[in-house]
Design a protein that fits this description.
The protein has helices at about 20-25, 55-60; strands at about 10-15, 30-35, 45-50, 80-85, 95. The protein has about 100 residues and is α+β, with helices and mostly antiparallel strands. It has a three-stranded antiparallel β-sheet, with no helix packed on it. The chain has a two-stranded antiparallel ribbon with strand order 1-2.
């Protein structure tokens, strides 16, 4: 974890939910966002891969049991590498996580 983190990152963002799945998918945008800083007991993970599951598709339509506040980054899962820690008894930097 000696590498300096960039100030910004790319994120896929959903601005609005749509009943029609195709319209919801077309509305997704890749934007630049500030890299979040992990709080105490949290880690920051550089995502290498993230699946698109049926729950993700239903969430794009605003029909999933849990609704994220818009604008939001879709998805619930990912795999990657720990790149920063916010303090506490956490995974070591460089740890691969699922």
């Amino acid at each position: 974890m000696t590498n300096k983190l960039p100030d910004t990152m790319r994120a896929v963002v959903l601005q609005q939910e749509y009943d029609q799945l195709a319209q919801a998918i077309r509305s997704l945008r890749v934007v630049r966002r500030s890299v979040p800083q992990p709080g105490h007991g949290q880690v920051l993970v550089r995502i290498a891969a993230a699946p698109c599951n049926p729950s993700d598709l239903v969430a794009l339509q605003g029909k999933y049991i849990v609704r994220k506040t818009l604008p939001s980054t879709p998805g619930w899962e990912g795999a990657g590498e720990v790149v920063a820690q916010g303090g506490g008894d956490l995974l070591a930097g460089g740890a691969r996580v699922l």
